[in-house]
């Protein structure tokens, strides 16, 4: 007469089996939510590989330590294009000064005027963050001088809208 016990075990078993698909589906659901994309760290040599010199390669440009994928702006940033000098590196100073002078194609903002810093923020927010996806950050932005992780690091929010839709 182990009928009752057998039925209870079967019930338990089917409950467990039913619970399985839900448990395994959970990470996928979490993934589909607008999760923060993983933060990718770019060293200078890595970033330099994305300078738009090869057809079909993505083109990356860093401003304020944030690496943007500017491939969709190929006509501006690609090989031989007017702003190609800015890509494959952190060109914060050049963006602030509206300069393509090789001496200005650096992350260094020392000595910039209030005006230039304001211009930098405007371009950073209204052009780069508005138009281009963020793919990562420069190691200088994520790490301290000694190479330890910078605990104050905060990823930028990336509003997913296109500035062109605003007009």
UniProtKB/TrEMBL annotation:
Q: Name one GO molecular function term.
A: metal ion binding
Which domain of life does this protein belong to?
Eukaryota
The record, for InterPro entries, names: Cyt_B5-like_heme/steroid-bd, Cyt_B5-like_heme/steroid_sf, MAPR/NEUFC/NENF-like
Q: Which UniProt keywords apply?
A: Endoplasmic reticulum, Heme, Iron, Metal-binding, Signal
* Subcellular compartments: Endoplasmic reticulum
Signal peptide per UniProt? 1-25
Among the Pfam families in the record, one is Cyt-b5
Q: Which organism is it from?
A: Pitta sordida (Hooded pitta)
Gene designation per UniProt: Nenf
Its GO CC terms?
Answer: endoplasmic reticulum; membrane
Instruction: Describe the family membership recorded for this protein in Swiss-Prot or TrEMBL.
Output: Belongs to the cytochrome b5 family. MAPR subfamily.
- This protein is called NENF protein
UniProt xrefs under SUPFAM superfamilies: Cytochrome b5-like heme/steroid binding domain (SSF55856)
Record domain Cytochrome b5 heme-binding: where: 42-139
PANTHER family named in the record: MEMBRANE-ASSOCIATED PROGESTERONE RECEPTOR COMPONENT-RELATED (PTHR10281), NEUDESIN (PTHR10281:SF72)
């Amino acid at each position: 007469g182990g009928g009752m016990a057998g039925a209870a075990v079967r019930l338990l078993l089917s409950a467990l089996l039913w619970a399985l698909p839900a448990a395994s589906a959970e990470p996928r659901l979490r993934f589909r939510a607008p999760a923060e994309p993983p933060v990718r760290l770019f060293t200078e040599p890595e970033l330099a590989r994305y300078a738009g010199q090869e057809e079909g390669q993505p083109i990356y440009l860093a401003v304020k330590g944030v690496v943007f994928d500017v491939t969709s702006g190929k006509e501006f940033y690609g090989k031989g294009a007017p702003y190609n000098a800015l890509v494959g590196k952190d060109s914060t100073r050049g963006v602030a000064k509206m300069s393509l002078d090789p001496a200005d194609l650096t992350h260094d903002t020392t000595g910039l005027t209030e005006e230039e810093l304001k211009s930098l923020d405007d371009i950073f927010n209204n052009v780069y963050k508005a138009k281009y996806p963020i793919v990562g950050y420069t190691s200088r932005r994520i790490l301290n001088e000694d190479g330890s992780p910078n605990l104050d690091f905060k990823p930028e929010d990336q509003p997913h809208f296109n500035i062109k839709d605003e007009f």
